[in-house]
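A further point concerns the way the authors explain their paired sequence and structure data. An entry of this sort, consisting of the sequence and the corresponding backbone structure tokens, reads as follows:
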Amino acid sequence: MNIVLGVGGGIAAYKAALLLRLFTEAGHQVTVIPTDASTNFVGAATWEALSGRPVTNNVFDAVDQVNHVRIGHEADLIVVAPATADLLAKAASGQANDLLTTTLLMARGPVLLAPAMHTEMWAHAATVANVATLRSRGVHVLDPAVGRLTGADSGPGRLPEPEDIFTAALSLVEHSAKRHAASPAPAASAASAGEALGTEPAASAGEQAGAEPGELAGRHVLITAGGTREPLDPVRYLGNKSSGKQGVALAEAALAAGAQVTLIHAPLDVAPPATARLQPIETALELRAATLAAAATADVIIMAAAVADFRPATISTGKIKKRDHGEDPVITLVRNPDILVELVAHRSAQNQQQLIVGFAAETGDDEADARTYAQAKLRRKGCDLLVVNEVGPGESGSERVFGQDNNHVEILSLDGSSPVQSAGSKRQVADVVVHLIAQKLGKNSQELARTRKN
């Protein structure tokens, strides 16, 4: 494979040398294009020695070969690491003042940008807008890692590890090839997901395709994530096992598909994407208020949060004491509102194309299996899609879904179309959900209204 490796002018440029080694040892031919600023960190001699190819960023070198056109045309993949805030801005605005930016404009294959910068730069409105623009055009922009930055700073903005960039780059090429192939992409572990739900196989194959860059461009996607906490006293709360990983993965997938994303989240075990509009909450009532307010402008609502069904009727102003000779405390619970049902009921007549997606953590019992309970819940809630997890301990005794990096789901549709199964990493599952949402949004408002009435 013919790969172009662009290197931006940040201190993380030294990590690009490790990435180059991974590409060359895998048998790929790599042309390195460093920016002038990046050579202050790693010189051209290093890139030439590691790649075995001449290195320049001057459009007037080897003019007879028309490099500013040829290199981009011939590239099977372009990776930029680190992609600084300056490079993101130039790429988003279509600047072409050196060999790297002209090559990006001439690219005909997939492009992967791996940002690295200080947290404030990554979260700045200008960078957020530039990343959204690039993603809407089909450019794959990784979220930076969270960790130690230059100096004593720490936070989102660290260059992802070379191994992670390498894996993402090859996966991007594979996904791009599948999208352009005549045959549909193969299903991922559909059989195992079906077995987990204990029912007949659901649809797979072509319906397993992941999200495509730009297919949610111009859409506003509202996502809830994490597990709500209901306070008992100043130090204790009722909570659940949700890590928020699936909701965060959905936000990342929607951003990659070009959407504007609002993420309303309870406490999370993972960092949310900085390019989403973030709104932290704690309780179910806070989640309800924030979600109903944001729903008015949303094209899609994905309720992935694990919302507490009950909350304490009263909250103690002081810590509840454990007394040696006292009676055990009695905690009275009251029911929380059903936010998903409210969202469906409040869907305005002017926004009948708004798509609402629910999540259900289900278990089977002696009376019925998980899918039967999930189908009943879908009819009761009235949402357009229901993403179903079968929760509880797996065969090894470990937790099957909560807190794990992988997931297996079955996606049920209110319109009666065949269930879709997906298994893999939570990001892979998120890609399948986002792609299915994009397909459903392709229906006109009359079709959506008809299926909801039926």
Summary: The chain has 15 helices and 19 strands.
